[in-house]
């Protein structure tokens, strides 16, 4: 069994332990938090990132907030938790998993009997969510691996791996499962400017696990596809609408467009917790990040002073560019409005 030994986030002795992803690939360092405010800063500053990983980190943050609270009635403890939920939620607006993870913990808190029951049950629920994330990724991997063939070269963008989840990964989980099923595969990772999740994290993670990976600049996607270096694409997602519109790392849309031009299948892998069945495209907030991510490289200025910068962290890939959406309960194929509905109905 190929199983990444990287564990991104974990609950240990009433504290949250996570890999500091800003230090990768140069150092593999773990940080420990006992204050939910520090977890919020860690999410905002990309110490932990990736939709499922921030969902679970948000849940752990709320569990810390419950333990930190000195409230002696359930009602005042719920008030403290509501404040913490807001602080954690405001860190990153696009990935729906964060709101999902926080809401799940709030629901458990609301149905607790008293203060001590509440504290115990939110910790138990957050730990359960972390374990379920790994099991879900492995189930997703099994479904997805059937779509990939021996000798495929698979392009991926950003990092949708162990480092974007609790462990194993979504898109990279499918790649792990495909290799595990005995098929020979290679991966091409885009570097994913400006934060370099592809080169810093995906290349690191796949190398760490002995999976054949080549790194390309984002600008070489067209070249690689035109020269038949790529047989399929797989990416993760931060939010998927019921219509099959997929929000993922900036640049995903370009990759999908070029894949379509060259008739290359384009797959998305994401758990059901990444689906937002209520919103329409105009409701989704695209996170805009700071200019310094674009005006410098590794601490060195690469743009003139006071240049105007546009730095969206995510883009939307329309359903017509997507071949299939892989989830833990099966693969949705076009037309997505019908197939996504069926996947959710199968869970009732
Ligand atoms: O800004 P990031 O690094 O949090 O963006 C992450 C992505 O866009 C991932 O592709 C997405 O969250 C899916 S992770 C399984």
Automatic annotation (TrEMBL):
The name of this protein is: Putative methylthioribose-1-phosphate isomerase
Chain positions of site Transition state stabilizer: 158
Q: What does this protein do?
A: Catalyzes the interconversion of methylthioribose-1-phosphate (MTR-1-P) into methylthioribulose-1-phosphate (MTRu-1-P).
Lineage of the native species?
Archaea, Nitrososphaerota, Nitrososphaeria, Nitrosotaleales, Nitrosotaleaceae
User: Could you give a single Gene Ontology term from the biological process aspect?
Assistant: L-methionine salvage from methylthioadenosine
Q: Describe the reaction catalysed, as an equation.
A: 5-(methylsulfanyl)-alpha-D-ribose 1-phosphate = 5-(methylsulfanyl)-D-ribulose 1-phosphate
What is the active site of this protein? 238 (proton donor)
The record's listing under PANTHER family reads: METHYLTHIORIBOSE-1-PHOSPHATE ISOMERASE (PTHR43475)
Q: Name one GO molecular function term.
A: S-methyl-5-thioribose-1-phosphate isomerase activity
Family stated for the protein in its record: Belongs to the EIF-2B alpha/beta/delta subunits family. MtnA subfamily.
Q: What is its EC number?
A: 5.3.1.23
Q: Which SUPFAM superfamilies match?
A: NagB/RpiA/CoA transferase-like
**What keywords appear on the UniProt entry?**
Amino-acid biosynthesis, Isomerase, Methionine biosynthesis
Q: What's the source species for this entry?
A: Nitrosotalea devaniterrae
